[in-house]
Specification:
Blueprint: H1 3-15, E1 24-28, E2 40-46, E3 64-70, E4 73-79, H2 90-102, E5 107-116, E6 126-133, H3 162-175, E7 180-186, H4 195-203, E8 208-210, H5 214-222, E9 226-236, H6 247-256, H7 258-271
Parallel strand pairs: 1-4, 1-5, 5-9, 6-7, 7-8
Antiparallel strand pairs: 2-3, 3-4, 5-8, 6-9
Bound molecules: hypoxanthine.
C-alpha cells in the first residue's frame, strides 16, 4: 500500500470519530502531555487504534490523539510524539503530520523540552523557535517526492511562521511569563550531546538543542503548513554547568514549569488567527 493511501485511511478513521473540525494540531513534548487533559469535549484515540499509526515508547509520552477544543478553538492534540532515536524511520515520524494536513489542518504547534546552549538561558526558560538547524545528515523528505504533497525542493526560509511567533510573544506578555526567541538545533539522540557538540551548536548560532521537532517541522513545511514552536529549556546543555544531564531532570523541570507552559500555549492558541 502506498504512503498516500495509508495517510488517507488514517485521516478517514480520525475524521469519522471527531466531533469538531480542528484547524490547529498541537504536538506535546516531554512532560507536557497533561495539556491534553485540558481539551474540552474531547475524543481520545490511542495511536494503536488508528490505521498505520506508529506507537510511542519515550518516557513521559502517552500515545494518543485528543480532538476537542482548547481556548475555544478546535484542536487536535498529539499526546506523545515519535522520535528518531526510538528507531522510527523519519518517514514514520512524518506520517502524523501528513495525516493532520489530510484532515484539513493548516497550523502545526510544536512543543518540546530542550537543553539551553545559549549561556544566557536558564533552566525553566521558554523559547519561541525562530529557526532551526539540521546538520544530522538526515531528512524526512529524502526519497521519491510525492508532488501531490509538496515540492521536491521546499523553501525553508520562513519555516517558523513569523506571525505565529509574534502571537506566541504576545501570549507570553499576556500570561506574564518571560519568553526567549531563538534557534533550535536538532540532534538525533538518544545520547545527550557532548560539551564539544554544544560548543559547536553555539558557534553555529543555536540557542537550544533537542532530539525532536525538526523532522515534523520539515514535513509540515513541505506540505505548506504554518508552524509555531515553543521549547521549555529543562537544563543547560552539556558542558555549561559542572554536572551531568539526566532524563529525570528533564522531566522534573518540564513538570515544574507545566502550569506556565500550559498557560502560554493556551493563550497562543487563542491569539492564532485562522
Ligand atoms: N539535549 C538534547 N535534548 C534535550 C536536552 C538536552 O540537553 N534537554 C531536553 N531535551
Amino acid at each position: 500500500m502506498d504512503a498516500r493511501t495509508q495517510v488517507r485511511e488514517a485521516a478517514e478513521y480520525i475524521a469519522a470519530r471527531m466531533r469538531v473540525k480542528p484547524t490547529i494540531a498541537l504536538v506535546l513534548g516531554s512532560g507536557l502531555g497533561s495539556l491534553a487533559d485540558e481539551v474540552e469535549d474531547a475524543v481520545a484515540l490511542p495511536y494503536g487504534e488508528i490505521p498505520h499509526f506508529p506507537s510511542s515508547t519515550a518516557p513521559g509520552h502517552a500515545g494518543r490523539l485528543v480532538v476537542g477544543t482548547i481556548a475555544g478553538k478546535a484542536v487536535l492534540v498529539m499526546q506523545g510524539r515519535f522520535h528518531y532515536y526510538e528507531g522510527h524511520p523519519l518517514e514514520r515520524i512524518a506520517f502524523p503530520v501528513r495525516v493532520f494536513k489530510a484532515l484539513g489542518i493548516d497550523t502545526l504547534f510544536l512543543t518540546n523540552a530542550a537543553g539551553g546552549a545559549n549561556e544566557g538561558y536558564e533552566p525553566g526558560d521558554f523559547m519561541i523557535i525562530r529557526d532551526h538547524i539540521n546538520i544530522m545528515g538526515q531528512n524526512p523528505l529524502i526519497g521519491p517526492n510525492d508532488d501531490g504533497l509538496g515540492p521536491r525542493f521546499p523553501d525553508m526560509s520562513t519555516t517558523w511562521t513569523p506571525e505565529l511567533a509574534d502571537a506566541a510573544r504576545r501570549a507570553a506578555a499576556d500570561v506574564g511569563v518571560g519568553a526567549r526567541e531563538g534557534v533550535y538545533m536538532w540532534f538525533t539522540g538518544p545520547s545527550f550531546e557532548t560539551p564539544a557538540e554544544v560548543r559547536l551548536a553555539r558557534m553555529l548560532g543555536a540557542d537550544a538543542v533537542g532530539m525532536s521537532t525538526v523532522p515534523e517541522a520539515t514535513v509540515a513545511r513541505h506540505c505548506g503548513m504554518r508552524i509555531v514552536g515553543i521549547s521549555c529549556i529543562t537544563n543547560m546543555a552539556a558542558g555549561i554547568l559542572p554536572q551531568p544531564i539526566t532524563g529525570e531532570e528533564v522531566i522534573e523541570i518540564a513538570n515544574r514549569r507545566r502550569p506556565q507552559f500550559v498557560a502560554l500555549v493556551k493563550r497562543t492558541i487563542e491569539l492564532i488567527r485562522d
